[in-house]
Structures are given as C-alpha cells and as structure tokens.
Amino acid sequence: MAEPVIVTVDYTPPGAPSTDRLHLELHAEPGARLTIHLGTPAQPLTSADIPAQPQPEPSDWDLPSLPADCVPGRTPELLTDAQAHARIQYGLSQGWTQRRIGEFAGRSATIVNRVKKKK
After folding, report:
1. What local confidence, expressed as pLDDT, does residue 113 receive?
2. What is the pTM of this model?
3. Beta 33-36 vs 22-28: how paired, if at all?
4. Which H/E stretch holds residue 118?
5. What is the spatial distance between Cα 52 and Cα 65, in angstroms, rounded to a whole number?
6. Which of 10, 48, 52, 111 fits a disulfide with 107 by CB distance 3.0 to 4.6 angstroms?
7. Is 99 helix (H, G, I), strand (E, B) or coil?
8. Which residue has the higher pLDDT, 53 or 115?
9. pLDDT, tens digit, 9 for 90 and up, residues 31-80
10. What would the 3-class secondary structure string for 37-96 be?
C-alpha cells in the first residue's frame, strides 16, 4: 500500500502575530481529491487532486520469463554461487550492462567482468 500524503495548512489571521495561528494536518490516501474553500462563498473553489504514487518497476528477479536456474522471485542476497552464476550468464545473454547484471546476481561488476572474459 502506498504511503499517505500529508497536507499541512497553516493559517495566521491578518495582523495577528505568527504565534496565533491555526495548524491543520490532513492525511490522505494517494488518488484522493482535496477541495479547499478560500475566501467568501461567492468566490470560486480551489481544488487539487492528490497524485497517485507511481508503482515501482518489477525487479529483474521477478521477471516471469526467467529460466528456473535463475531462481525467479529470490532476492540476490539469498542466491548460491551457482544461482548467481546462472543469473550472470542470463544477463550477459540479454545484453545487459555489467552494473545491472551485478545487481541482478548480487555480485560486484568486477565478478561479472571476469565471467564475461571467460566466455
């Protein structure tokens, strides 16, 4: 679930010291609509949509097309050496950058470079 959006409104009456103020804090869900009435009722309303937060891109290890030896769904920190090597080979076959392959396999880019040179 996305984090709530916090809308804070501070109001200080005209001529009042800054210590005499009204502080209002609203916690709204992303995608909610917020309408604020300013001025007299005859004036038009001011409203704003709270933007929905973008969903993160799926991780490489969550790709549905991964071969079984790449252990889909498992984070890189939990891979055995053989599984990490399979992921390095897969990333190389896809033409990914060394950095992306390193993150995908949970290994440094220098290890990816060594495997690449052995091919």
Report:
1. 82
2. 0.52
3. unpaired
4. helix 109-118
5. 29
6. 111
7. helix
8. 115
9. 777 776 666 666 655 555 656 666 667 788 888 788 999 999 888 988 99
10. CCCCCCCCCEEEECCCCCCCCCCHHHCCCCCHHHCCCCCHHHCCHHHHHHHHHHHHHHCC
Where do we find the tokens 């995908």? 104
pLDDT at 1 over 50: no
* Residue in 93, 47, 45, 99 with CA at minimum distance from that of residue 76: 99
9, containing H or E segment: strand 5-11
CB 53 within 8 A of CB 2: yes
Mean pLDDT over the full length of the chain? 78
Burial class (CB in 10 A: 0-12, 13-18, 19+), 30: middle
Contacts 24+ apart (CB under 8 A), 37-43: none
**Tokens 């799926």 identify what position?**
58
